Amino acid sequence: MTEVKQNNGEKHGSFEAFIDGNHAGLMTYTWAGEERFIIDHTEVEEAYNGKGVGKEMVLAAVDFARKQGKKIIALCPFAKATFQKNKELQDVLA
C-alpha cells in the first residue's frame, strides 16, 4: 500500500510516497500566489517504477487542492500527462 505524506512550506512543498516504509517517490511543487501551486517535478525510485506511485502523488495533490480550494498548474511532464489522461482530475487545473 502506498502512503503519501505532504510537506507544505511557505514557498515550496512536496508529496512523498512510501511503500512498506520505504521511500518510493517525490513530487515537488512551488506556490504561485495564495490560490495556485505549480507541480514542477515528479520522481519515482527505480524499484517502484510502473507501480502507480507517481499517480498516487498526483491524486494526493488533487485531493489537497480540492479540500483547500486551490488550483494546480502542472508543469511537470508526468503530472501534465496524468491530468490529460484523467478527465475527472481536471477540475483543479488553473
By DSSP, the count of extended strands is 5
CATH topology term? Aminopeptidase
Our Rg estimate from Cα atoms comes to 12 Å
Molecular shape: globular
Structural class: alpha+beta
- Give the low-confidence spans: none
Q: Would you state the CATH class?
A: Alpha Beta
The pLDDT mean sits at 97
Which bin fits the share of residues in helices? Answer: 25-40%
Largest sheet data: 5 strands, mixed
**Distance separating the two termini:** 30 Å
The name of the CATH superfamily reads Gcn5-related N-acetyltransferase (GNAT)
The CATH architecture can be given as 3-Layer(aba) Sandwich
Oligomeric composition of the shown chains: single chain
Q: What's the number of domains? A: 1
In short:
This protein has 94 residues and is an alpha+beta fold.
Topology, pairings included?
Layout (H helix, E strand, L loop, with lengths): L1 E7 L3 E8 L2 E10 L4 E9 L8 H16 L2 E4 L2 H9 L9
Parallel strand pairs: 4-5
Antiparallel strand pairs: 1-2, 2-3, 3-4
Keywords:
2 helices; alpha+beta; 5 strands; five-stranded mixed β-sheet; 94 residues; Aminopeptidase
Describe the model:
- Keywords: Transferase.
- The chain has helices at residues 53-68, 77-85; strands at residues 2-8, 12-19, 22-31, 36-44, 71-74.
- The relative contact order is 0.19.
- β3 and β4 (36-44) form a beta hairpin.
- It is an alpha+beta fold.
- It has a single domain, classed as Aminopeptidase (3-Layer(aba) Sandwich), CATH 3.40.630.
- It starts with a strand and ends in a 9-residue tail after the last helix.
- The chain is built from two helices and five strands; from the N terminus they run ββββαβα.
